[in-house]
């Protein structure tokens, strides 16, 4: 609508200016009007071909036609995405053409006596007229074009930021899901370590209790007391684990008010802090652990090398869990086999090894303990998480060996 309106006004202007042009050129007035209408209507294509519009405006300048077309054409040319040298060249041509035509017309008017000013007025009028018809539209077009490019750049930057925020949100969801999976894995590992060993010993003692209940009531009473003690210990550790879960849920509810990226990390960190604050097992309880296995009928020997010292809580808990799970596996898969537990305190690390001999024929446990196959995986995950080394496998003698080395951080 704007371009059509400008083209209509330009055509009417050029058509009206075509009348004196036809009289001066000695051609029919109708031809001058038609020529002006056609030339002025070129402004309709100013957005698509701005160079053509400016060239047409320069071409009809000697006929003193197309002032509106020249102004609008120069503005459109300067606002377009064209090289500056092209804009400068066309603007210079328009400036020079307008200056020459104005100079000639003013001089002719002064020669006819229409103007009685001095000779200084001729160059002054030509320069001011050419600059007034050329500089303002070019400068305005350059400003509008620069502003338009700035707005487009800001819009692209906003779109880019929106895409980056969307990508960050997706990564935050992935990180939260990863944190939840890690926490589930950690909780499953803790539950396995807590339940498997205690319950395995309870099953072994229950089987022994069933075997000696009638033959040796005194031993039966002792085994029953051991089963009760282990059950209470299992309940205590399970209660601690439930406390960790509740702490993780509270952290998740508190994290609902913060950005999504922090939710999964907050839950995992809260659960880890709760686990560290809980009274977990330590190396000082290792003798009691070995004693419980010995009370269940296992022939087990404990040897400690080096001077014992304080370690980080997670290091002591990991070392304890490795020995605990290895003894549980002996109860499950090699009942009656002689077992050796070795612990070595070194300068920058702590090493542990649990090795059992092959079980004697016919010495299988009557308890028929099930196996989930996750014990070795859990031990490896614990040790590797602390930057340690974990190795397990059968021995040449037919037994099984579990070894781990953990940095003493």
TrEMBL record:
**Recorded catalytic activity of this chain's protein:** ATP + protein L-histidine = ADP + protein N-phospho-L-histidine
User: In this protein, which residues make up the domain named Signal transduction histidine kinase subgroup 3 dimerisation and phosphoacceptor?
Assistant: 183-248
TM region(s), chain numbering: 26-45, 52-74, 86-106, 118-144
This entry's Enzyme Commission designation comes to 2.7.13.3
**Keywords linked to the UniProt accession:** ATP-binding, Coiled coil, Kinase, Membrane, Nucleotide-binding, Phosphoprotein, Transferase, Transmembrane, Transmembrane helix, Two-component regulatory system
Enzyme class (EC, first level)? transferase
Its GO CC terms are:
membrane
One function term, GO molecular function aspect: phosphorelay sensor kinase activity
A matching Pfam family: HisKA_3
UniProt xrefs under Gene3D superfamilies: 1.20.5.1930, Histidine kinase-like ATPase, C-terminal domain
Q: Which residues form a coiled coil?
A: 144-182
* Protein name per the record: histidine kinase
């Amino acid at each position: 609508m704007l371009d059509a309106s400008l083209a209509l006004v330009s055509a009417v202007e050029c058509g009206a200016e075509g009348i004196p042009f036809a009289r001066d050129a000695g051609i029919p007035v109708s031809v001058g009007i038609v020529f002006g209408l056609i030339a002025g209507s070129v402004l309709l294509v100013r957005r698509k071909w701005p160079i053509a519009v400016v060239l047409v405006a320069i071409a009809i300048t000697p006929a003193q036609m197309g002032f509106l077309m020249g102004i609008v054409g120069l503005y459109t040319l300067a606002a377009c995405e064209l090289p500056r040298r092209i804009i400068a060249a066309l603007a210079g041509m328009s400036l020079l053409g307008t200056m020459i035509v104005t100079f000639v017309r003013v001089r002719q008017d002064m020669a006819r006596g229409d103007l009685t000013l001095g000779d200084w007025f001729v160059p002054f009028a030509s320069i001011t007229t050419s600059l007034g018809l050329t500089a303002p539209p070019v400068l305005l077009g350059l400003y509008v074009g620069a502003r338009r490019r700035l707005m487009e750049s800001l819009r692209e930057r906003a779109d880019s930021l929106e895409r980056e925020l969307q990508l960050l949100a997706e990564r935050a969801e992935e990180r939260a899901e990863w944190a939840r999976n890690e926490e589930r894995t950690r909780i499953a590992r803790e539950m396995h370590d807590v339940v498997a060993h205690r319950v395995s010993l309870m099953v072994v003692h229950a089987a022994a209790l069933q075997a000696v209940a009638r033959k040796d009531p005194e031993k039966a009473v002792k085994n029953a007391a051991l089963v009760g003690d282990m059950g209470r210990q299992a309940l205590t550790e399970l209660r601690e684990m439930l406390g960790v879960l509740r702490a993780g849920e509270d952290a998740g509810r508190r994290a609902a008010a913060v950005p999504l990226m922090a939710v999964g990390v907050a839950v995992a960190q809260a659960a880890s802090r709760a686990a560290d604050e809980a009274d977990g097992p330590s190396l000082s309880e290792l003798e009691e652990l070995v004693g419980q296995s010995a009370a269940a009928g296992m022939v087990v020997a404990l040897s400690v090398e080096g001077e014992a010292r304080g370690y980080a809580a997670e290091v002591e808990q990991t070392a304890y869990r490795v020995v605990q799970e290895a003894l549980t596996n002996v109860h499950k898969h090699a009942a009656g086999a002689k077992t050796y537990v070795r612990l070595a305190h070194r300068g920058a690390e702590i090493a542990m090894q649990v090795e059992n001999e092959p079980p004697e024929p016919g010495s299988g446990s009557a308890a028929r303990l099930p196996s989930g196959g996750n014990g070795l995986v859990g031990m490896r995950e614990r040790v590797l998480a602390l930057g340690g080394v974990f190795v397990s496998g059968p021995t040449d003698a037919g037994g099984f060996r579990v070894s781990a080395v953990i940095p003493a951080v």
